[in-house]
Amino acid sequence: MDAFLTNAGSGEPPRRGSEDTMNRIRRVFVESLHLNLSPLDLDYEHKLDEFAGLDSLAVLEFVTALEKEFGITIEPELLRLDFVRDLPQLASYIEGQIPRSPAAPASHA
N or C: more exposed end of the chain, with fewer CB within 10 A? Predict the structure, then answer.
């Protein structure tokens, strides 16, 4: 099972994604749900569902937009409100799913 899921309940502090990833998620959230908000209105301390009523259709629209934005597939068992509402943990999960490109070899000058 994914390391993100196995970390839950392990006593370890929750992982956080990078600022860049969280900013992209906030933008996708506002755009995909057609909210009359600026992505900057969404702070990291609040859960995303506090800014919009998220029903199952809204969750699917949001997740589909995230998959397109990041070029990933989110596992169907994670399509739950408690998963997508926590911005830092969602960012951490997404970063773990993004394919890593091989590091460029160091140039010798």
Answer: C
pTM of the full structure? 0.72
Give the pLDDT band (50/70/90) at residue 12.
Answer: very low
Number of folded domains that form the chain: 1
Please report, for the domain that includes residue 38, its CATH number. Answer: 1.10.1200.10
Q: pLDDT, tens digit, for every residue of 29-87?
A: 999 989 888 887 887 667 887 777 778 888 889 999 999 999 999 988 887 878 888 88
Kindly give, in sequence order, each residue whose CB lies less than 8 Å from that of residue 74, ignoring residues fewer than 6 positions away: 63, 66, 67, 93, 97
Torsion of CA 78, 82, 86, 88, to 10 degrees: -40
CB 30 within 8 A of CB 39: yes
First and final CA of the chain: distance in angstroms?
44
**Domain coverage including residue 81:** 14-97
Q: How far apart are CA 38 and CA 41, in angstroms?
A: 5
